[in-house]
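Why do we care about 3D structure at all? Because function follows from shape, and shape follows, mostly, from sequence. That is the central idea of this module. The next example makes it concrete: a single protein chain, its amino acid sequence, and then its structure expressed as tokens.
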Amino acid sequence: MLSWILRGCRDECSATDQLKQARDVFVAKEAVLQKKISQEMERAKLFTKSGNKQAAMQCLKRKRYYESQMNQVGSVRLRIDTKEKMIADNMVNK
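And the structure:
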């Protein structure tokens, strides 16, 4: 699943470097999604004040979609962190 992220780092990078790069990508994605969520909330508030309920509902639907993507990114980051800990434990045990 993470192979598309790790392609740029073939032989010259270690597994921990690859995981750090992947984590950085997902941190950036989380930041972008958080920004989009806050923008959609602001737009929904503006549409509600102006009386355009349909547009406000569309903003809230997009916000909910971005939140679901955030959850997915969070779960991938959790798996990356788990793998990093496993590798670190393996290095200590050797």
